[in-house]
Write a structure and sequence with these properties.
The chain has about 450 residues and is α+β, with helices and mostly antiparallel strands. It has 15 helices and 18 strands. The strands form 4 sheets. It has an 8-stranded antiparallel sheet, with helices on both faces. The chain has a 5-stranded parallel sheet with strand order 3-2-1-4-5. α4 packs antiparallel against α5. About 50% of the residues are buried. It binds adenosine-5'-diphosphate. Adenosine-5'-diphosphate binds next to β8, β12 and β13.
């Protein structure tokens, strides 16, 4: 096992990894920008290295500075967390070249899944169901029109290198397709430096259901259940739950088997998430994330598996400490992402925390790097906490989350706590009747109109 790990991240996820390391007896190195000198992850780590000024490219995305910090401190492994360099194949390769272990899959698997066309082709080979659409990149608008007629309108134009919903455009008919084609390509070029696009059938009422897997270097792959992440605003997840309120046990087993088998054949190691759109009883693969997800705590609650310590264990070459037969999904878990943002405009609202009271009690977990007196820097993501609850069933989990949100006090910045409370009291949400489009309509009706 490693004796020292460098954590190439900040905020709550840096703390999450740090805590796992401490419990495993591993020393930690925090890296930080000058804007984060007072951050909690820096305070709690055994050692810390300042890697640059506030801007992301000069600090948390600065590969050379992070590698130097690992070399100077003698870290044997780097955990990238999520976001930042976690899905950067070049960084994973550099880490491997420096004889440091990257706590994640191989650079080859990161590269394969980062290219959405290659990811879909690979999944097709392993019998994972896909969204109907083009077989690979579409070269011109005439070919796009032909494919759209075959799969049927509406269609979605997506960027091969896509991420965060950028470079994605819907077209309801042929004339819209012409315009959407050019916009999607130029957006993709601007965002990713690559204007290659492909076509998918646009699904009108899907749920976003994703499957958590984790593999080791000994050929074992575990299925740790699904998460329903349909509640999104502008393709950003807001509230997630596990298990999905709409899947039967048989459907869960089916998609778990399909996903774990594919990953076994691929020889995939470490944590990964296969994302599906689910509509009318069918699963359609859209992409794979080759890293730990923000919403991993709901999976940890229902499966009772510590994903981060398993990630570290398998990166060190050990076998997973759990067998599939030992995994029994229990109860229901919900996560609310708490953002420092204006509740009406959703514009980020960084500032100094004057009062902070964390909720507690049975089945309540708060992953956050906040403390009283902390000034949230304006350079980074607006998510300041994740509140996660676990209860024997979904109605009890909803009641527990409402109670925990009532207890939570954050003053100094505006937050989206009220939005979560409104969602949790809504009849349709309570019945589990929502799709990926539900939250935007809910906000339109209940927030903007107020
Ligand atoms: P990105 O990598 O940019 O996040 P994804 O492929 O993961 O792109 O899609 C992001 C979101 O866009 C999904 O969670 C879903 O809400 C929506 N989406 C993606 N593909 C489709 C589709 N074929 N039909 C309808 N909605 C889609």
């Amino acid at each position: 096992m490693f004796t020292k790990i460098l954590i190439a991240n900040r905020g709550e996820i840096a703390l999450r990894i740090l805590r796992a390391c401490r419990e495993m007896g591993i020393r930690t190195v925090a890296v930080h920008s000058t804007a984060d000198s007072d951050a909690m992850h820096v305070r709690l780590a055994d050692e810390s290295v300042c890697i640059g000024p506030p801007s992301l490219t000069e600090s948390y995305l600065n590969k050379a500075a992070i590698l130097s910090a690992a070399t100077i401190t003698g870290a044997e492994a780097i955990h990238p967390g999520y976001g930042f360099l976690s899905e950067n194949a070049e960084f994973a390769e550099l880490v491997e070249m420096h004889d440091i272990v990257f706590v994640g899959p191989t650079s080859q698997h990161i590269r394969m899944m980062g290219d959405k066309i290659q990811a879909k082709a690979t999944m097709k080979k392993f019998n994972v169901p896909l969204v109907p659409g083009s077989d690979g990149a579409v070269k011109d608008v005439e070919s796009a029109k032909k494919i759209a007629l075959e799969v049927g309108y509406p269609v979605l134009i997506k960027a091969t290198a896509g991420g965060g919903g950028r470079g994605m455009k819907v077209a309801k008919n042929e004339s819209e397709l012409e315009e959407a084609w050019h916009i999607a390509r130029s957006e993709a070029k601007m965002a990713f430096g690559n204007d290659e696009v492909y076509l998918e059938k646009y699904m009108d009422k899907p749920r976003h259901i994703e499957v958590q897997i984790i593999g080791d270097q000994h050929g074992n792959v575990l299925f740790l259940g699904e998460r329903d992440c349909s509640l999104q605003r502008r393709h950003q997840k807001v509230l997630e739950e596990a298990t999905s309120p709409v899947l039967t046990k048989e459907q869960r087993q089916f998609i778990g088997d399909v996903s774990a088998n594919a990953m076994r054949k691929l020889g995939y190691c470490n944590a990964g998430t296969l994302e599906f759109l689910y509509q009318d009883g069918h699963f359609c693969f859209i992409e794979m994330n080759t890293r730990l997800q923000v919403e991993h705590p709901v999976t940890e609650f229902i499966s009772n598996v510590d994903l981060v310590s398993e990630q570290i264990r398998v990166a060190a070459g050990e076998a997973l400490s759990v067998k599939q037969n030992d995994v029994h999904f229990q109860g229901h878990a919900i996560e609310c992402r708490i953002n420092a943002e204006d509740p009406i405009t959703f514009v980020p609202n960084p500032g100094k925390i004057n009062v902070f009271h964390a909720p507690g009690g049975l089945g309540v977990r708060l992953d956050s790097a906040l403390y009283v007196g902390y000034s949230i820097p304006s350079y980074y993501d607006s998510m300041i906490a994740k509140l996660i609850v676990h209860a024997p069933n979904r109605p009890l989990a909803i009641a527990r989350m409402k109670r925990a949100l009532e207890e939570m006090v954050i003053s100094g910045v505006k937050t989206n706590i009220a939005l979560h409370q409104k969602i949790l009291s809504n009849e349709e949400f309570i019945k589990g009747e929502y799709t990926i489009h539900w939250l935007e309509r809910f906000i339109e009706k209940n927030i903007k109109a107020c």
